[in-house]
Design brief:
Length: about 675
C-alpha cells in the first residue's frame, strides 16, 4: 500500500508540474523591456540573453558600453515598448518568437526613435528551460554594427551680445590675439619682458614650453591680449620668437566706464559646474562671472549644437548621423543705457571714488549707472595674473567695489523731498519765513549736547523755502521736520519708496532706508533725517528716481534697464501736487543761479539741482570724511535726471566739486 501511495504522489507531482504555466516569450520580453527601461543592463545580460549572444558580445560590450553611452550621450526618458501578440498566439519552442519593439529616447542631440523586430529563443541553461533574447549593437542604434564607434561633436553657439539703447555693443563677440612662442626662435633673455606684458610669470611660461607635446618649431600658446591694446601686441611681436594668432574673444569696448554694469565672463568654476551640469555646461565653457554677464546668463548663453554619429568600421563608408541639433545663439539683450552718456559721466568723475545714475523722468528708463573707479573687464578676458588682481584688491580706491549697488547717506539732496512731504502734510508753507539766527540751534535743553548746525549762518532772514534751499539751511529743515512729526516724515519717505526693494529687473541694488529699523526714535534723529543724515541711506539710482515727481507733477516711474521692458510703469503717484512741484523746480533752479553750485551755473546750459554733503564722522572725531552730491537736470528741457556722488570731497571745495563734474555731463548732453 505504501508503494502504491508513493507512486501515486509522484505521478501527481509530475502531472501538476506539467500543468504549471511556463513563462511565455511575451512574459520574458516584458521582463526584459522593464529592465531595459530602468537601465538594468547587468541584469539583462546575466538573465535574459541567449548563449550565442553572450559568446559574441562580452559583458563589457553590452553592460559597460551602454552605461557609458547613457551618460555620455545624455540619454533620458528612455521608453521601450513592444507590440503585444494576439490572444490566440501559440509558441513553438523549436522556433524563435518574434515581436516588434519601439525605442524612444532623448539625447544631447535631440530625440531618437526607431522600430525594430526582436527575437527570443527557447534554450535550456543550468537545468532551466526558458526564453532568451537575441541581441546585437543595432538595439542601441539601428545602424550600429560590431566594430563601429559612436562619436559626439559639438558646435559652439555664439554668446548673445549686450547693446545700449542705440544698438551700440557694450559686450560683444569680437576678436583678440592668442600670443605664443616658437621655442627655437625665442630670445631666452626676454622671458621676463614677455611675462610682464602678458601679466604672467617666467615660471608659467616655462611650464607651457616644457609640455610633453612641445617641439622647437611649434607655436606654444602662453597668453592672450585684447585687440583694443595694439601697443602691447606690437611690443610683444618685437621680441624674437613671439608670434600671435587672431582668435574669437569677448570684448568690452567701453572698458572701465561700463565694467560694473556689464561685468565679464570667465571659465566656469568646479562649483558652478557641479550646480549647472544638468543645464549642459561642460568644464571648457565660459560663463558670466559678474554684472549683467552673470545676471543675464540664461538669456545670453546659447544652446550648443550637438551631433551623434556612428563611425563605421568598414573602410569607405560615410558616418551615419543618429541625431543632430543645430546650435541656437544667445539672445542679444538691449539696454536702456546710453553708452556715450555713461562714458562721459564716468570720465567726468576723473577716477574719483563715487557713483552716478541717470534716469529719464518721463519713462523711468535708466540712462547711466556708474561706479568709479572701475577695472577693465578686458583684462579678465585675456587672463589676469594673481599679482594684478591683488593690485586691484589693494587699491585704496577699491575699483572692484560696485558703488551703484550700495546705499549712502544722501545729505542735503534729500531736502526737496522733505519739503514735498511737509507741503503735502500742510505743515510747511513755502512762502512763510522763519527767523533763524546763529550757526547752531536746538529745540530746548532736553536735547543735551546735540545741536543742529548750518554752513551758512549769513543767510538773510526771514528764511522761506527758497532761501532754505539756496543756502541749504539744515536748521530750517530740522524745524520743519519737528513741525510735521516723525510719523508724517517716515510715512512720506515710505511713499517715495524708502524701505522697499528697488524694482529694477536684472540688477541687485541695496534698498534705501529711513533708518536701521525703519523708524525714528528721537527728535534729534528726526532733525538729522530731514537733511539726509542720521541713519538714512539712499541708493544712487533711487536718489535720481525720487526727483522724478518734481518734474512729472507727482509721479515716480519704476526704473527700467532692459529695453524690451515696458517703460512708463508707475511706481508711485500722487506724491506732489503739480503746482507745488513747479514751485520746488523754481527753488532748484535758484540753487544753481544764486546758491553754492556755481560750477554748474553755465551761461549756455541752464541747470537746476540740489547739492548735498554727507558727513561721515566717527565718535570722538572733530572732523570726518565728507561725500559730496549733486542731483541735477536740464532746467528748460528736463530730459534726464543725473544723481552724482563723490567720496572724500572735504578738501576739494565741497559739493561744488561734484557740480563741476555734473556740468560736464550736461554740456555733453546739450551738444554744446
Amino acid at each position: 500500500m505504501k508503494k502504491i501511495l508513493l507512486g501515486t504522489v509522484i505521478l501527481l507531482l509530475v502531472f501538476l508540474a506539467g500543468c504549471l504555466d511556463k513563462p511565455t516569450p511575451e512574459e520574458r520580453l516584458a521582463e526584459y523591456v522593464s529592465h531595459w527601461n530602468k537601465g538594468d543592463f547587468a541584469v539583462m545580460y546575466d538573465r535574459y540573453l541567449t548563449a550565442k549572444t553572450k559568446k559574441a558580445f562580452p559583458e563589457d560590450d553590452f553592460v559597460t558600453r551602454q552605461e557609458n553611452l547613457s551618460e555620455d550621450l545624455g540619454i533620458g526618458n528612455l521608453e521601450v515598448t513592444y507590440e503585444k501578440p494576439g490572444e490566440d498566439a501559440k509558441w513553438d519552442k523549436d522556433q524563435p518568437a518574434e515581436f516588434n519593439i519601439r525605442v524612444k529616447m532623448e539625447t544631447l542631440a535631440g530625440p531618437v526613435e526607431f522600430d525594430k523586430p526582436i527575437r527570443l529563443r527557447h534554450e535550456e541553461r543550468e537545468n532551466e528551460k526558458n526564453w532568451f533574447v537575441e541581441w546585437d549593437p543595432s538595439y542601441i542604434f539601428p545602424d550600429l554594427e560590431p566594430g563601429d564607434e559612436i562619436g559626439v561633436s559639438r558646435t559652439e553657439a555664439k554668446r548673445g551680445e549686450i547693446v545700449d539703447r542705440a544698438g551700440i555693443p557694450i559686450a560683444k563677440n569680437g576678436t583678440g590675439y592668442q600670443v605664443g612662442i616658437v621655442p627655437e626662435k625665442l630670445d631666452e633673455t626676454r622671458k621676463a619682458d614677455i611675462a610682464q606684458l602678458l601679466g604672467t610669470t617666467p615660471e608659467a611660461i616655462d611650464t607651457s614650453l616644457n609640455a610633453a607635446w612641445v617641439k622647437p618649431d611649434l607655436f606654444v600658446p602662453i597668453g592672450k591680449t585684447a585687440k583694443g591694446n595694439p601697443a602691447r601686441l606690437e611690443q610683444l611681436l618685437e621680441i624674437p620668437g613671439v608670434a600671435a594668432r587672431e582668435i574669437g574673444m569677448r570684448e568690452y569696448p567701453y572698458g572701465p566706464a561700463l565694467a560694473h554694469l556689464t561685468g565679464y565672463i570667465g571659465s566656469i568654476s568646479a562649483e558652478q559646474l557641479e550646480k549647472l551640469e544638468d543645464k549642459g555646461y561642460s568644464e571648457t565653457d565660459q560663463i558670466g562671472r559678474r554684472g549683467l554677464e552673470s545676471l543675464l546668463e540664461d538669456r545670453l548663453r546659447g544652446t550648443d549644437g550637438m551631433k551623434i554619429t556612428i563611425r563605421k568600421a568598414q573602410e569607405g563608408l560615410e558616418p551615419v548621423t543618429v541625431a543632430e541639433r543645430a546650435p541656437e545663439d544667445g539672445e542679444t539683450v538691449k539696454l536702456t543705457i546710453d553708452a556715450e552718456l555713461q562714458k562721459v559721466t564716468y570720465d567726468s568723475m576723473k577716477g574719483e571714488p563715487g557713483t552716478a545714475a541717470s534716469v529719464d523722468p518721463e519713462t523711468g528708463e535708466v540712462l547711466a549707472l556708474v561706479s568709479s573707479p572701475a577695472y577693465d573687464p578686458n583684462e579678465f578676458i585675456t587672463g589676469m595674473s594673481g599679482a594684478r588682481y591683488r593690485e586691484l584688491e589693494e587699491d585704496e580706491k577699491t575699483p572692484l567695489f560696485n558703488r551703484f549697488a550700495q546705499s549712502y547717506a544722501p545729505g542735503s539732496t534729500i531736502k526737496p523731498i522733505t519739503a514735498a512731504i511737509g507741503i503735502k502734510a500742510g505743515t510747511l508753507d513755502p512762502a512763510e519765513g522763519l527767523t533763524i539766527t546763529g550757526k547752531t540751534w536746538q529745540k530746548d535743553a532736553s536735547w543735551g549736547s546735540y545741536r543742529v548746525s548750518r554752513v551758512h549762518p549769513e543767510a538773510p532772514n526771514p528764511i522761506d523755502l527758497n532761501r532754505a534751499m539756496v543756502y541749504s539751511d539744515n536748521i530750517y529743515f530740522a524745524q520743519q521736520a519737528l513741525a510735521m512729526g516723525k510719523d508724517t516724515l517716515v510715512e512720506g519717505l515710505k511713499q517715495f519708496g524708502f524701505g522697499e526693494p528697488i524694482p529694477l529687473e536684472a540688477m541687485e541694488l541695496k534698498a534705501s532706508q529711513v533708518s536701521n529699523n525703519g523708524t525714528i526714535g528721537s527728535e534729534g534723529q528726526l532733525a538729522d533725517t530731514s537733511f539726509g543724515q542720521g541713519q538714512m541711506l539712499t541708493n544712487i539710482l533711487h536718489l535720481a528716481s525720487i526727483y522724478q515727481p518734481i518734474l512729472t507733477g507727482g509721479t515716480m516711474h519704476k526704473p527700467t534697464l532692459l529695453f524690451d521692458e515696458e517703460d512708463g510703469q508707475v511706481w508711485k503717484e500722487g506724491l506732489i501736487d503739480p503746482a507745488h512741484a513747479e514751485m520746488i523746480r523754481s527753488t532748484l533752479r535758484n540753487v544753481v543761479l544764486d546758491g553754492f553750485a556755481q560750477s554748474a551755473n553755465l551761461a549756455d546750459v541752464p541747470i537746476a539741482g540740489k547739492t548735498g554733503t554727507a558727513e561721515l564722522k566717527a565718535a570722538g572725531e572733530d572732523r570726518g570724511k565728507e561725500n559730496g552730491y549733486f542731483v541735477s537736470y536740464p532746467a528748460e528741457q528736463p530730459s534726464f535726471i543725473l544723481a552724482m556722488m563723490v567720496e572724500n570731497i572735504e578738501d576739494n571745495g565741497g559739493s561744488d566739486y561734484v557740480a563741476a563734474m555734473a556740468a560736464e555731463v550736461h554740456r555733453y548732453a546739450s551738444g554744446r
